[in-house]
Design goal:
Blueprint lengths: L5 H29 L13 E8 L27 E4 L1 H4 L8 E6 L10 E8 L4 H5 L3 E5 H5 L7 H6 L3 E7 L10 E4 L7 E7 L9 E5 L7 E2 L1 E4 L2 E5 L7 E6 L6 E8 L8 E3 L6
Parallel strand pairs: 1-5, 2-4
Antiparallel strand pairs: 1-6, 2-5, 3-4, 3-6, 7-8, 7-15, 8-12, 9-10, 9-13, 11-12, 13-14
Length: about 280
């Protein structure tokens, strides 16, 4: 096929259309140069309205574990004091676990312009957001107070419920690679994995594993929260794991990340991450 000339494209599209075409071509070039397609950026500039509450101790880190299954990870950095429970529309039956959001309160008399970044680790009790017709964030006491102007953290927490705005933001776990925790009860016929420290989208749309000396990717089932499982055996390690994010469909494959002599309750860290 012969590429159209400059004059031919100009006649077909008109000058305005030609300029538009040039802009589109430039965007395509930028996508390639950045090696991350614009459609795969999880960050959004548009803010959405929601309400926020807080739970736990006033300066505390929030939940102990939570509906995503992260367990004691929520008590230590980088999760510590950044955890948040959300209503069902954001929790997405557990597939929203691990997603990161910026949350900022709107009352200028007491709120700073600073947004707090939180990680979804739990679901709001009683589907709170659905009852008020608006997305809901239930933050740790520390995260909630962080939205206040200097010195007014306690006063802000005393409000109890706040109008806020929120938007997605890429997760960033500096110095961490994606890890896979083998859940208790796993055996050669039933393998369950919890995904930890996923940069970028943070959420998971699908997971597959591949056994040693095999070309077949076996699809895992979403169990609950950030936990996935496969009921098929006997399974033979080492296992490669392939993740596909829920938000943008980006894929990452960690080869032989779970060794042949794997054991339940062990965590195996890959050499990879999305960012």
């Amino acid at each position: 096929m012969v590429a159209p000339t400059f004059n031919t494209m100009q006649r077909r599209c008109g000058f305005t259309g030609f300029v538009t075409l040039c802009c589109l071509l430039l965007l395509e070039c930028l996508k390639v140069a950045g090696n991350v397609p614009f459609a795969q950026e999880v960050s959004h500039l548009h803010w959405h309205r929601a309400v926020a509450t807080w739970y736990g101790s006033p300066e505390g880190d929030g939940s102990d574990g939570g509906a995503c299954g992260y367990g004691s990870l929520v008590d230590v950095k980088p999760f510590r004091a950044r955890v948040g429970a959300v209503s069902s529309m954001l929790f997405k039956k557990g597939e929203g676990c691990g997603a990161c959001y910026k949350v900022r309160c709107l009352d200028k008399t007491i709120c700073s312009r600073r947004a707090v970044t939180i990680i979804i680790t739990d679901e709001s009790p009683g589907n709170y957001g659905a009852n008020i017709g608006r997305p809901h964030f239930d933050l740790s006491g520390a995260a909630f107070g962080h939205m206040a102007v200097h010195g007014r953290n306690t006063e802000l927490r005393n409000r109890g419920e706040l109008p806020v705005v929120y938007r997605r933001t890429p997760c960033k776990y500096r110095g961490k690679n994606i890890a896979f925790h083998v859940n208790s009860g796993s055996n050669d016929n039933w393998l369950s994995l919890l995904v930890e420290y996923e940069d970028g989208d943070g959420d998971i749309g699908s997971m597959h594993i591949r056994e040693a000396n095999s070309n077949e990717w076996i699809e895992m089932n979403h169990l609950w929260g950030a936990n996935w499982c496969v009921n098929r055996g006997p399974l033979k390690g080492p296992f490669s794991v392939k993740l596909t994010t829920l938000s943008t469909g980006r894929t990452l494959s960690a080869r032989d990340v779970i060794p042949r002599n794997w054991s339940p309750k062990a965590t195996y860290t890959s050499r990879l991450n999305f960012l």
